[in-house]
Design goal:
CATH topology of the largest domain: Hnrnp arginine n-methyltransferase1
Number of strands: 15
CATH superfamily of the largest domain: Hnrnp arginine n-methyltransferase1
Number of domains: 2
CATH class of the largest domain: Mainly Beta
Distance between the termini: 27 Å
Oligomer: single chain
Order of helices and strands: HHEHEHEEHEEHHEEEEEEEEE
Strand content: 35-45%
Radius of gyration: 22 Å
Helix content: 10-25%
CATH architecture of the largest domain: Distorted Sandwich
C-alpha cells in the first residue's frame, strides 16, 4: 500500500470541502445513517460523524482499512463501524439514509463506481435515500496545442523507424494538466458526451460523441476530457481546465497524426468505454473530419488495448 496516494486525497481541499458541504446538506443530527464506500483512511466518515450522523458504516477492501481502524480509534469515533470488505461482498448490509462514495478516477469510472453504486443503491439505500454523488457528466473538446503531441512523438527523433512502438504509445490515454489556451476556443465549446444519474441503474458500458464545425483553419492534435460530478443540489466538483485544482487532472486522447481542418469542416469524436471489476477498463476513440457537405475526409480509430505490450 502506498500511503502517499491517500495523503494526496487528504491534501485535496477542493475535493474535501465539496464532499463535506454535500454531507452537511443531507445529514440530520442524531438521525441520519451513512455508508462510506471505499472509505480509504476514513476522512469522509469522520466528516459525517462530526456533522451529526447517528451511525456511519465504512467499507474498505484494501490494506488501508487497517489504517482506517486506527484513525477511528484515535478520533474516538464510536459511532463509526469499519467493515473491511468491498461493499459488493457484504451480506445483508445495514440500510442507510445516505450512501457516499469517492471512488472517482481521472477517468471517472476506472475504480468501478458504476458497479459499486448500482449495488449500493439497490441493497444499502433506504427508500428516498440519498446518493453522493448524485450525477456525473463527462466533457470533451479538441486540443489545438502541439505540446503533448510533440512529447508523445519523440519516437520520430532518433533516426530510426520506430513507428510500431510509436503507434502503441499513441493508443494510450494520458493524465495531463491542460490549460484553456491548449483547447479549441479556450474550451468554451466543450461538449458533454456522457451523463449518468446515480439514482438509477446504469450500464457500465458508456458511449457518446461530439462534433465541432470549425470557424477557422486549425490543427487538432488530440482531445481532452474531464468530468463534473453533482454531489448535492448546488454543490459540484469539476476537473475541468481553469477550475480550482484538485488531485485529479484532465485526460488527453492522442491522435495518430493531427487533423488538419479547414474553415467550415467538421471535426468529431466518438468515445466508448467498458469498465468491469472482472475485466478492467477498456476505452476506444475514433476521430473524423468531414467537409462542408458531410463527406468523410479522414478517420482515425484508436484503442487503449493496443497500447499495451503483448
Amino acid at each position: 500500500m502506498r500511503i502517499e496516494y491517500h495523503r494526496t486525497l487528504i491534501a485535496d481541499r477542493v475535493r474535501n470541502d465539496a464532499f463535506k458541504r454535500a454531507l452537511a446538506a443531507v445529514i440530520k443530527k442524531g438521525e441520519t445513517t451513512v455508508a462510506d464506500i471505499g472509505a480509504g483512511t476514513g476522512l469522509l466518515a469522520l466528516m459525517a460523524a462530526q456533522l451529526g450522523a447517528r451511525e456511519v458504516f465504512l467499507y474498505e477492501a484494501a490494506e488501508v482499512a487497517g489504517v482506517a481502524a486506527k484513525v477511528l480509534k484515535a478520533n474516538r469515533a464510536r459511532n463509526c463501524h469499519l467493515i473491511p470488505c468491498h461493499s459488493t461482498e457484504m451480506q445483508d448490509p445495514p440500510k442507510v439514509d445516505v450512501v457516499v462514495s469517492e471512488t472517482l478516477g481521472n477517468y471517472p469510472f476506472e475504480e468501478h463506481i458504476i458497479e459499486t453504486l448500482n449495488d449500493a443503491r439497490r441493497r444499502f439505500l433506504k427508500p428516498k435515500g440519498t446518493m453522493i454523488p448524485r450525477a456525473l457528466s463527462q466533457f470533451v473538446t479538441p486540443v489545438v496545442s502541439d505540446r503533448i503531441h510533440r512529447e508523445l512523438t519523440a519516437w520520430d527523433d532518433c533516426g530510426f523507424d520506430l513507428d510500431v512502438p510509436k503507434a502503441m504509445s499513441l493508443n494510450n490515454i494520458y493524465v495531463r494538466t491542460l490549460a484553456p489556451k491548449d483547447l479549441l476556443d479556450g474550451g468554451k465549446n466543450a461538449t458533454a458526451w456522457d451523463t449518468i444519474d446515480f439514482a438509477a441503474h446504469n450500464r457500465t458500458s458508456r458511449k457518446g460523441e461530439a462534433r465541432w464545425r470549425l470557424a477557422a483553419p486549425v490543427s487538432i492534435y488530440g482531445f481532452a476530457t474531464w468530468w463534473q460530478a453533482e454531489l448535492a443540489p448546488g454543490i459540484a466538483l469539476s476537473t475541468a481546465p481553469g477550475t480550482p485544482r484538485t488531485h485529479w487532472e484532465q485526460l488527453y486522447f492522442p491522435l495518430l497524426k493531427p487533423l488538419e481542418a479547414k474553415t467550415g469542416e467538421t471535426a468529431a469524436i466518438e468515445l466508448r468505454s467498458r469498465t468491469s471489476m472482472k475485466t478492467g477498463t477498456h476505452v476506444t476513440w475514433a476521430a473524423t473530419l468531414r467537409d462542408g457537405r458531410g463527406r468523410e475526409l479522414e478517420r482515425q480509430a484508436l484503442n487503449l488495448d493496443k497500447g499495451f505490450l503483448p
